[in-house]
Amino acid sequence: MKTEFRNLRKLRPGGERMWSLDPSQKEVLRFAVSCRILTLMLQYYAYTQFCLPGSAHSVPEPLVQLAVDKGYRITGGNEPPWCSWGLPLVYSYIQDVYWNVGFLRYYELRQVPNFLLATPVAVLVVWAAWTYVTTHPWLCLTLGLRRSKDSKKTLEKPHPGFLSPKVFVYLVHAAGLLLFGSLCMHVQVLTRLLCSSTPVVYWFPAHLLQNQEPLLRSVDTVPEKLLEKNSPPGQKAPRNCIMKLLYNWRACSPVTRCILGYFLTYWLLGLLLHCNFLPWT
């Protein structure tokens, strides 16, 4: 009886199951829950080590000396202030005290190079948001909850690709990450944050290339003779679109040159500097 009642609760009036998830959504949900559980376990372990008397493990002498030299707090001493917080989170305390992470704390004159490093990806997200908002003003104004009467016609033939109404939620997520990262984080990690957290950073450049690059607008506008002429000697014209653009660099539009130049330069410099333990993000 209980089993049948549970099954009925999962069914809609039409007979379809509610909250049905496909395998990819289940995998994402499982990964998110696992990350949250691991984070809570770390917070609990730190609480037992620093806040509960008699729970701390002994620390080797070299690590104790390192903590003294660096000014770090070790277990067994005075209770740190975060233990008395309503929500005792050690990670928030570390960011505040040791990393100087906070609202507008990074806005210093000596951090100008780091702001310049994060400028391209910030401009890319702002440009993407402006393009989308000017294309769908009513959709953005109502947060996608209501549609105007004129939009009924556009629903029959919606915008493809980046300008699709389904992209709105991703754009809001990207804008939120940009705003939070610019105001409350070390801004040099902004590129890493956006490139690993939102697909807008990749969708919008692809949108620009498709709309503003003559070599990619259609197959008819890409003469094979031109591609073979500009290809290296002894090699056929590549089928990969990026390689075609690189082989025809002089014929590319300025937007294409900026996009490819930025991504390739960032990849190459990041590979060289990071592998040699030099500052890079």
Structural overview:
It contains 13 helices and no strands. It is mainly α. The longest helix is centred in the N-terminal third of the chain and has 28 residues, at 23-50. InterPro entries: PIG-V/Gpi18. One of its GO terms (molecular function) is alpha-1,6-mannosyltransferase activity. One of its GO terms (cellular component) is mannosyltransferase complex. Its EC number is 2.4.1.-.
The profile of the biggest β sheet is: none
Class by helix and strand content?
Answer: mainly alpha
Task: Please provide the ordered H/E string of secondary-structure elements.
Answer: HHHHHHHHHHHHH
The count of DSSP E runs of length 2 or more, i.e. the number of strands, is: 0
- Strand percentage lies at under 5%
Distance between the termini: 57 Å
Helix content percent band: 55-70%
Mean pLDDT: 80
Task: Please state the overall shape, judged from the principal axes of the Cα atoms.
Answer: globular
User: Rg to the nearest angstrom?
Assistant: 26 Å
What is the number of helices?
A: 13
Low-confidence blocks of residues: 1-18, 218-222
Which terms would index this structure?
13 helices; endoplasmic reticulum
